[in-house]
Amino acid sequence: MTNKSLSASDRLAPVAAFTRILPVYVRKWWPALLLAVVLVAAATTPAAATPEVPDVPDDIVGTAVAGSDVSYPLPGSPRFVALESDSRVWFTQTNPDSIGLLTVTDTGIPGVKEYRIRYFLLESGSDPYDIAYMNGIIWYTLRGTNKIGRLIIASETIETYAVPTADSRPMGIAVAADGTVWFTEEASNKIGRLRLTPTPEFTEFAYPSADPAGFNDLALDSSGRVWATAPKLDRVVFLTPGTGEFLNVSTKPYSRPISVVVDSDNVPWVAVEQDHLIGRYSPGTLALWRWFTIPGVQSLTSLAFRLENTDFELWFTDSVGHRAGRLVVSIFGVVVRLESQQLAGNAPQPMGIARGNDNVVWVAAFGDRYVYEWRDPYILYQYLPVVARP
Asked: Which domains occur in the chain, in start order?
């Protein structure tokens, strides 16, 4: 990869004219047709100097004016994001299929940032989907080629591992503290586990159902249990790996639980795609969940969690309604704040969302090819009416 840096004058000149992102695209693509002509000519004429053909795209660099809402343009369509730190954001993207890294740094001038976007091309048709970070390694699912991939950051080495069940469509991914990788298989009714030591080893846990579960997202709790959404069955399941036992938690009458996170008490929260609800598991109650209606959204897509003081903070995206927002609930189950807003752009389609440690929230906007950075005060405090359901 060729790194191209800007001089100080190049970095700061655009700031006077614009208040948002001013990228400088520096990409080199060698046309396939021209390459074919060169190869044919080489076969019939004396050897000549071999033209340089870049093996990976160049970086994209630019400057941006810092604010509560900054968007960074990407070469492809991002799906999900994972944070290495508050200033290093990894993401999966399509068109082209690749893993990307957005790095944001201060320039030393108040309010002005420099950013750099690098991306690592993957096999065409691999369809990278979910992504996770743990201990210097980026893990991701490849729906199109039925593999689990990893990128070792220090060496920039990419490795892939074929899922044993063919055409399983691996979707959600999470990594335990010991490096064990868990993932869902949307098309095979299985939850998979990958361990690399002493040698790569897959274990697949078959869900006992004749009906397709359509496993999507998953999350791990500190006791080792795996929580996964089964949108086609309107339930959340959790797997105890030691016994291989699955237990079911229905979300009916509400349909298609799509995203799940686990809070600091090892309790799952789930976003229901079609009914505009976020719920916290409440065993022992009639409904099994305590539901919170999110007005104004059309299709809840993804969740991110953080314990903020003594409050549960849930960030969410709505890919169909092009919105993102935040639900804050006290430890007593009382809504402290509920807010959302439509993102800028024609059709941003926000998908993945991640909450950092420095009051930063990152959102992958699939439709408009941006990664959004939000800092306090985040949303413009458009308060919504709160409807809580027992």
From this structure: 280-390 (2.40.10.500)
